[in-house]
Amino acid sequence: MMQTLKRLLGPISSLRLTVICLAAALVLVFAGTIAQVRFGLFFVQEQYFQSWVVWWSPASGAYKIPVFPGGHLVGAVLLINLIAAHIQRFRWTWKKFGIQLTHLGLIIMLAGGLATDLFSVSSFMRLKEGETKNYSEDQARVELAVIDQTDPENLKVTAIPGEVISKGGTITSGDLPFTLAVRSYFRNSKLKMIGQETGASSVPAATNGTGQRVSLTSAPRATKMDERDIMSAVVEVTPAKGGKSLGTWLVSDALAVSQDLEIDGRKWSLQLRPARYYKPYSLTLKDFTHETYPGTMIPKNFSSKVDLTDAANKDTRQVLIYMNHPLRHMGDTYYQSGFEPDNSGTVLQVVRNPGYQAPYIACIIVSIGLIFQFTYHLIGFARRSKPTVKP
Amino acid sequence: MKRFVPYLVLLVAALWLGSSWITPKPKPGDFDLTSFGRIPVLVGGRIKPLDTVARNSLLIMRGKQSLRLPNGGGTMTATRWLADVLFNPTVADGYPVFAVANQEVLGMCGMPQEDKRYCTFAELKPSLEKIEQERKLADDVEATERTPFQTAILNLHNALIHYQQLKNSVHEEGTVDFGKEIETYAAAVASGAGSIQPGATPLPQDQLNLLKAAVSRYERQSRFSNMLAVAPKAGGSEGDWLSTGNALIRVDSPQTIPASVAALADMSDAFRADDKAKFVKVTKEYAGWLAVEHPEWTTRTSYEMRFNRMEPFYQSMVLYVGAFLLACGSWLVCPKGLRKTAFLLILLALLVHSFGMFSRMWLQGRPPVTNLYSSAIFVGWGAVVIGIVLERLFRDGIGIACSGLVGFITLIIAHHLGSSGDTLEMMQAVLDSNIWLATHVVVITAGYSAMFLAGFLAIAYVIIDMMPKTFDKQAGKTLARMVYGVVCFATLFSFVGTVLGGIWADQSWGRFWGWDPKENGALLIVLWCALILHARWGGFIRERGLMIMAIFGNAITAFSWFGVNMLGVGLHSYGFMDKAFPWLLGFVICQVLFMIKLSIRFPSKD
Question: ∠ CA B7-B11-B14 to the nearest 5 degrees?
């Protein structure tokens, strides 16, 4: 039984496969680094590293052909290779102990990296001084917030994820007395005021709201670090019980204010906004400071003094978040990330990463393994060198 | 007798080093600027001696730390030049300190279109407006797309701004009698304060006008200059330093003029009056006052000035070349004697190198690697340390030759990286963490050291391979063992350094790994090391294969160290440096040539 298993493991645990994987990883990382000059980090990350296959397509985009294994594929094969090699070659000897330990650490690191890629969520929390928030916003995702304004004291929000809108079709919800039909959708777009900005077409994007004065055109995906996609969509509103369409509305990431509509005497508002993640606790910004070195503009430190209020866990305290000193609370980590241009507020990056401890554990194990192996060899090496010394 | 020759060489080298410790006497008939150069000021967030300010300014403007005067006028020290700039700007305007290396720029300023010319401020003055116009145009173009003309204009513009700021560091340009001016001003402030008391006679109009003019002048000076020259009283912190203008605005009577302002005013007036004795007296008194009020700062600045003058990295560079040549010579003639001398020299070189590196650490209060410049210094240092260990183990001169060469090359690189100004700059907020600088940065840089040493050992193998008569097969085997050992070392350091970097990134940016170019560069080294070791263990490569891969390690390490910074993208792209691209390319091509040379006879010899 064990023999059959070992024979099966042979090819997948081979050193040849390790070498091939390492070489492939080397080429992939190099190509992915150079490609960042043209396509930017986010695009490259998606296409090269967080993919199973790297595709190539001509400028026209008519077809695409696979050219190289992607990061996930190389990583997964390497992980399988490592585990298989471990099972097959594991032997309890001091000579191999360091190597075994090193590879065990690598398995943890690769697995942790995969988990992080799949499960970690990153978002931002912008706070002005004195402001309190119990949600963070995802800049890479959007949602269409449909808000029932009937009772101003108690707004009812229905959030439709951007992914649903991107699929098109008609969106219905039990909470809404109307349906939303997606008439057009753009991953990245340009909005221009008709008659005021050059290059604006004369066709209004929608029949109601801001869309009447704005033209909408598609734009290529953003590639630079300081640019991001502006998602836009045109939706048509029809009462759910049937009847005449109320017309179309333009919703876009670029429109900062919500647009109103009225159905059966009830007021509603529509806004496409960064997707929100609500927390069971809240943060209040007390003070933001931005220090520079004396006589210069070089930043010395940024820090945010926040009040954490968590009623459920009876955890209420003041925290100072600053460079290299994040706040960790209930699986979320808050980092000092940026600030408002006039220093009136802070931008905190919020990361939820269930696998964040994996690299720490892996690092310790691998370091012990490498140091052990290295010292073991060095001692042997020095011993062997001795006889060659001529007096 | 022969036994003592190596020690005699060591003694001569040590004497040469020692000679730089002696403080040079000022030229007869010129100012004694020893105490002047030591005076601490706060520039760029750091307290440094005027000597450093002077040297760095000349480096930025003309690429050298001293000034060569035209028509056989000899050389002028940076401090002497700075004294003119601060106190006697009209004279300073006549020194050729602006290096312009672009024919179009020179033509635009109405000068002969040479390849390179050192211009004086007076020559450039009529063209200032034109330069400003071109600068505005060039500013809108992205750094990667600028023409050589635009880059040259921006460089010249920066140098001009720097010079103008420097000229207004103590007082406004064109000030005649600063001592008297501030006394009159302080007296007017005091009587002005008295005049607003009930029943007092109001301040006469001319006094009022004088005050208004003075305050706006001081305000202008403090806005324009970036030097904070006024030290606080004992117990004050770095944040309490002021520009002379700001300090004067806070004055309310002649008694409250800060000691620094009064001293600088006396220096300025004595300098313009060419009163050498008084100048020395005033600088000495001021230095004495500073030593009493701020002993810690003055100790540092005195030390820094001595460090500047010694130029330890230049000295160790020379010694590395000596050690390298002697080690090479030892393979041809007199193996034992030359190797011994080479070994002693490289030890001395390492000592001087270490002195320089640890001095910088003490001055800055930081771990050894804080920017690209200091990384070059550390890479060389690390490689030499490993090389000396190898030499002790194998005693064949190869460790000395290779590490001497790596030490020399990295110090040359450092020298060129250091020409952009103060290399002891302040750390950006996110980098302000000594723990991570000491661990991640140092470990990863030590990985570079090991990679380069392995690569150069492999290049030595190429050379040995070309001379089969001089070296036997055993030499190749020994080298293979060295390279293998050093690659193991590089694997350990690169891997641990990379992971530590990931942990730092997780602490400060919220992600362990982000595929940023610098991170990828580090990963490339780790992958390459892993590839070498696994290929060796699997028997896919032998002695020659190991050497070929180790040589390519040089190219990968150079890409990771500098190449990724040239891409101009990512979070780590501190110091965009496109000028060095041809050098990097040349280096990589050389490595490939070495690899081809080795692979040609691949099957026959192994």
Answer: 135
Domain end, chosen from A237, A262, A277, is at: A277
Instruction: For residues A237 and A367, state if they share a domain.
Output: no
Between chains, do B507 and A360 touch, taking CB under 8 Å as contact?
A: no
Confidence at B572, pLDDT banded by 50, 70, 90: low
Residue B36, pLDDT > 90, answer yes
For residue B181, what pLDDT band results from cuts at 50, 70 and 90? very high
Q: Which of B507, B510, B527 minimises the CB distance to A122?
A: B510
Q: From A277, A312, A342, give the residue that closes a domain.
A: A277
Mean pLDDT of chain A: 84
Residues A112, A129, single domain; the answer is: no
Indicate yes or no: CB of B534 within 8 angstroms of CB of A22.
yes
- Domain segments of chain B: what residues? 47-167, 178-293, 313-417, 427-606
A337 vs B contacts (CB less than 8 Å): 509-510
Rounded CA-CA distance A274/A140 in Å is: 8
- For residue A303, the cross-strand partners are A289, A322
Binary contact (B394, A301; C-beta < 8 A): no
The predicted-structure confidence for B416-456, as pLDDT tens digits, reads as follows: 888 777 788 777 776 777 788 888 999 999 999 999 999 99
Closest alpha carbon to B428 in B369, B500, B370: B370
**Which chain B residues have a beta carbon less than 8 Å from that of A45?**
514-515
Instruction: Mark whether A268 and A220 lie in a shared domain.
Output: yes
Higher pLDDT pick, B303 / A116? B303
CB–CB of B517 and A19 under 8 A? no
Q: Read off the DSSP letter of residue B560.
A: I
DSSP character string of A167-192:
T-EEE--TT-SEEEEEEEEESSEEEE
* pLDDT tier for residue B577 given thresholds of 50, 70 and 90: low
Q: How many domains does chain A have?
A: 3
For the segment A175-209, what is each residue's pLDDT rounded down to a tens digit?
888 888 888 888 888 888 887 777 667 778 888 88
Residue given tokens 């010395």 in the structure block: A300
Q: How far is B1 from chain A (nearest CA, A)?
A: 19
Contacts 24+ apart (CB under 8 A), B162-165: B162/B57, B162/B60, B162/B61, B163/B57, B163/B61, B163/B85, B163/B97, B163/B98, B163/B121, B164/B224, B165/B224, B165/B225, B165/B226, B165/B227
| pLDDT (tens digit per residue) in B187-224 | 988 888 878 777 777 788 888 888 899 999 999 998 88
- Is B589 an 8 Å CB contact of chain A? no
Both A154 and A269 in one domain: the answer is: yes
Residues of B in contact with A31 (CB under 8 A): none
pLDDT of A2 higher than 70 = no
**What is residue B606's predicted lDDT score, i.e. its pLDDT?**
42
Residues 343-362 of B with CB under 8 A from A: none
**Residue A301 lies in domain:** 124-133+280-352
Q: Are residues A241 and A300 in the same domain?
A: no
Q: In the structure encoding, which two tokens stand for residue A46, read together?
A: 């998606």
Using the beta-carbon criterion (under 8 Å), do B503 and A385 form an inter-chain contact?
A: no
Q: Do the Cβ atoms of A388 and B394 come within 8 Å?
A: yes
Give chain A's count of helices (H) and strands (E): 7, 18
A73 and A193 both lie in a single domain: no
- What is the pLDDT confidence band of residue B312, given thresholds at 50, 70 and 90? very high
Same domain? A41 vs A87: yes
Interchain CB distance below 8 Å, A302 and B429: yes
Within 8 A of A49 by CB-CB distance, chain B residues are: 515
- Say yes or no for a CB contact (<8 Å) between B538 and A19: yes
Confirm or reject contact between A349 and chain B (CB < 8 A): yes
**A339 and A247 belong to one structural domain:** no
Distance from CA of B175 to the nearest CA of A (A): 24
Residue A33 and residue B428: Cβ atoms within 8 Å?
no
Give the residue on A whose Cα is nearest the Cα of B560. A30
